[in-house]
Amino acid sequence: MEDNDKYRAPALDKGLDIIELLSTQERGLTRAEIVKLLGRNASEIYRMLERLVAREYVARSDGGDRYTLTLKLFSLAHQHPPIKRFIAAARPVMDRFVQAAEQSCHLGIYDRGNVLVIAQTDGPGIWGISIRLGSRLSLLDTGSGQIMLAFQSDAQRTRMIAEHVVIEGETPLPDDELRAMLTQVRRDGHGSTASRQAFGVTDISCPVYAPDGDAIGVLTTPYMRRIDRHAAPPPEQVLGLLRQAAEELSMSGGPGPEQNVTA
Questions:
Q1: Full residue range of the structural domain in which residue 63 is found
Q2: Does the residue 258 lie in any domain?
Q3: Which of 130, 152, 194, 256 is deepest in the core (most CB within 10 A)?
Q4: Which residues form the IclR-ED domain (predicted)?
């Protein structure tokens, strides 16, 4: 007997077979298609699919005839200790940024429908904007959320939006306005927009890329312009510094430009 077959767990194998199959299908599959492609009994596939849906690894379409992977595996893959390593790598990069830019900076990742802040570094000055660790930022109306959405595959972006949970105070965005904004962000390679949460603040955000070219994280500085005699770095310079920081943390050069974003 092969070592790989020494300790068999048929039920686990069935579940993993379904997950691995669905991971290759952007539009999902019907139960009949899964049965055919895996060459298994229809009743055992049905039972396993129901358990995967109940545990939120797989989602059933509104019509109930198609199954797709959720982002639960994506979320689990970026929990501790990988998050600890990500934060440890980010801290010195963020420290260098805030010293040069004289602005605060925070790092967010996707988590259960919104952006979770996992690292925050204050600027060197006597004032600035800080985002509390563990804060959840809206996926739709913040610079961090829009960067996270823009730099995903169409299928991944659709799932993220479907999982989005409305945050208190969130400003609704019409679908066409959101699509146009995400398309522009993707073409630019960054985001720089007036904050929808506070006057006088510009959210400047850059993606941190995973090996597959999608955004695994986002660096954001809530830029505040000095109006006294101190010559602080202007927003164009701050953007350049933030892009450099994001590139240092990225594991790839990111995707190529995309003309339109669908969601």
A1: 3-70
A2: no
A3: 152
A4: 72-255
